[in-house]
Design a protein that fits this description.
The protein is an alpha+beta fold.
């Protein structure tokens, strides 16, 4: 029986809410958003036809409140709710509540969510269904000593995983028995915080595996298909960094075998809608890991190679329709790759960043490039939610073409105001091993020296562009203050006119700890800059948006410089570089650093203090654990010493840079 959907409420935020609404609007549906106090001016609110407030910023008081979301659905007249991913998307109680309220839940039955919601129970079910499993312990008994014995039986290294969740939260690799107790406790805390359930399972940790997942789809008429596979092997901290489809090196025979196993898994739980069955593969073998009973973050790469809109499939199935295509009709054309652009700082162990996006340019203008985002320039990345800025998806006739387009898309991406992983992603795309599809979950660790080379001093090209930007900016400011009656007065010209002397300006920049003095000599069509590497002739202009078209000793290139305060961010040749302009008109620009202080790495909550005042500690010992964005960050002792004072208590909120404790010499 067909039950037409006319008004769709999206119980989510950010890019997935915007993406779902895009398809809903294309189908002629009325769209309803919900938002927390922190998201009152968010993009998904602006895109929706209507939007309803559901509570304060913390997710548990807004996006995780079933009652508030159902109340918004009732007030708006929504006849269906799409949960997106994350938040309540895999919450069986929410699916049940929607059904009881007479609202269509755009997702699987609550029974399927429950069956796959516990990794332990799901693996037991898959074993019965004949789906291959990784050796491990998936039992109900969670006694710490039992788990430690099971780890010994399985053999190190082992992987501790939160039974109720995913996304790398509550997941720890343990390489030796003496590391197990602390890793177990940390995994349980993260699992409890993220999913409200501290149950874990323990599995054999494969050393060079590939992470391959299969997109499945089922309707309420007994049909179930797979829409090929995705390779998500390039990961960091068990979180996906790069996803692509189809999986490189996949043979038709193996695709069929994995597809059949995925369909068998879905049928075993009476599945309906979109789901993903995740496998870990090593050598000739593949093993079931888990099933995600929702739409995946990386679904766009499947859409690219099949030409299908998976959200449209979800809505059609939710209405009671049959699947749009049979297994034999599902196409597979070309290759697609997705990367996740995050507000995180690779130079600080990828700590998530919060703050304002002062400048944002995403590469949606490029051919065969798709961008899914939930933010705009001027928006704020909040401490309360995932710090993803955008998903960048490229496609090509083959993998080589897709890789080249990925490099171009990342080169055309610009973010100012927050540190991001853009340069890191571009380094992956440009790496010869990535081009050769030498993929496994250790890719980043194996190539870390190349992918994360550490800070390097800026070169003369960057300094020349920064200097030209400042010179042009000051010339414009000068022009605005020149006496209109005498616009050619030498006293009003930016060069600082000198009688019988060469006109020049001295500029000073700071590159981290390095101070750089540049003398700019004015010439009729530009400048000669005295740079650290020698003199360079510079011609060019700066537009209002910071874009530059310049010639450096006759070599033409395009760039952009964005100024925020005295920080200049220079985008050129696909790279990004930051220098500080030291303005002599300001009394002081000295910054007080935090080097050597034991400070909070980011805003968050103190969840554990591992030491007491007066306690002696050794270098590397855990001192304080800060939780932010549902992940734990441990502040360790930088040297041997004694804890002189603790500045906070468990449960306290701290700002980034807040001094957590005082450590003195023992």
């Amino acid at each position: 029986m067909i039950r037409p959907i006319r008004t769709l409420l999206v119980a989510n935020r950010g890019e997935i809410a915007v993406r779902v609404m895009r398809t809903a609007k294309a189908l002629g549906l009325r769209t309803v958003a919900v938002y927390s106090e922190a998201d009152a001016n968010a993009l998904h609110v602006a895109v929706a036809d209507e939007a309803y407030p559901i509570g304060p910023a913390p997710a548990r008081e807004s996006y995780l409140r079933i009652d508030a979301i159902l109340d918004a659905a009732k007030k708006s007249g929504a006849d269906a709710i799409h949960p997106g991913y994350g938040f309540l998307s895999e919450n069986a109680a929410f699916a049940d509540a929607c059904e009881q309220a007479g609202i269509v839940f755009v997702g699987p039955p609550a029974s399927a969510i429950r069956a796959m919601g516990s990794k332990s129970a799901a693996k037991a079910l898959m074993e019965t269904a004949g789906v291959p499993l990784v050796p491990g312990y998936h039992g109900e008994d969670q006694d710490a000593s039992l788990l430690a014995r099971e780890a010994e039986r399985i053999g190190f290294p082992v992987l501790i995983k939160a039974s109720a969740g995913g996304g790398g939260k509550g997941m720890k690799v343990v390489r030796a028995a003496d590391e197990f107790p602390e890793a177990l406790a940390s995994a349980q805390r993260e699992a409890k915080s993220a999913f409200g359930d501290d149950k874990v399972l323990v599995e054999k940790y494969l050393t060079t595996p590939r992470h391959i997942e299969v997109q499945v789809f089922a309707d309420s008429h007994g049909n179930c298909v797979y829409l090929h596979e995705r390779d998500c092997s390039i990961q960091r901290r068990h979180q996906k960094v790069v996803e692509e489809a189809p999986a490189p090196g996949m043979t038709p025979e193996r695709r069929a075998a994995m597809g059949k196993a995925a369909v068998d898994a879905a049928k075993a739980v009476g599945y309906r809608g979109a789901g993903t069955v995740e496998f870990i593969a090593e050598g000739e073998h593949f093993y079931f890991m888990e099933m995600n009973t929702r739409l995946q973050v990386e679904h766009p790469v499947t859409e690219a190679i099949t030409g299908q809109d998976l959200v449209q499939w979800q809505l059609r199935v939710a209405q009671g329709e049959t699947l749009p295509l049979t297994q034999e009709e599902i196409p597979l054309e070309g290759h697609a790759i997705e990367v996740r652009l995050y507000a995180e700082d690779p130079e600080r162990d990828f700590l998530p960043q919060v703050g304002r996006l002062d400048h944002l340019q995403l590469p949606s203008h490029l051919d065969h490039t798709r961008v899914d985002t939930g933010v705009r320039a001027g928006d704020t990345v909040s401490i309360h939610y995932d710090p993803m800025i955008a998903k960048i998806i490229v496609s090509g006739a083959d993998r080589l073409e897709a890789v080249r387009r990925l490099e171009a898309a990342l080169a055309a991406t610009e973010v100012v105001g927050l540190a991001t992983n853009r340069v890191f992603l571009k380094a992956i795309a440009a790496h010869p091993a990535f081009a050769a599809a030498e993929l496994d979950t250790n890719f980043i660790a194996r190539h870390q020296d190349v992918l994360l080379p550490g800070p390097a001093p800026v070169d003369d090209t960057v300094l020349a562009l920064a200097a030209l930007f400042i010179l042009k900016e000051e010339a414009r400011q000068s022009a605005e203050t020149v006496d209109a009656a005498d616009p050619w007065s030498p006293w009003g010209l930016a060069p600082g006119w000198r009688l019988n002397r060469d006109a020049h300006v001295d500029l000073t920049f700071a590159d981290r700890e390095r101070r750089i003095d540049i003398r700019a000599h004015f010439r009729p069509h530009g400048f000669v800059l005295a740079l650290p590497g020698g003199d360079v002739a510079v011609e060019g202009d700066a537009e209002a948006d910071g874009s530059l078209r310049v010639r450096l000793d006759g070599v033409a290139l395009s760039a952009r410089v964005i100024r925020t305060g005295n920080r200049l961010t220079v985008f050129v040749r696909g790279g990004e570089y930051a220098v500080d302009f030291i303005d002599p008109r300001l009394a002081s620009q000295a910054a007080t650093g935090t080097a050597g202080r034991l400070v909070a790495p980011m805003p968050g909550t103190i969840i554990r203090i591992a030491v007491e005042e007066g306690q002696e500690v050794t270098k590397g010992a855990a001192l304080v654990v800060v939780e932010a964005m549902k992940m734990e960050h441990t502040v360790a002792a930088p040297r041997d010493g004694k804890v002189k004072a603790l500045k906070f208590a468990v449960g306290d909120l701290v700002d980034e840079g807040a001094e957590l404790l005082v450590l003195e010499d023992a």
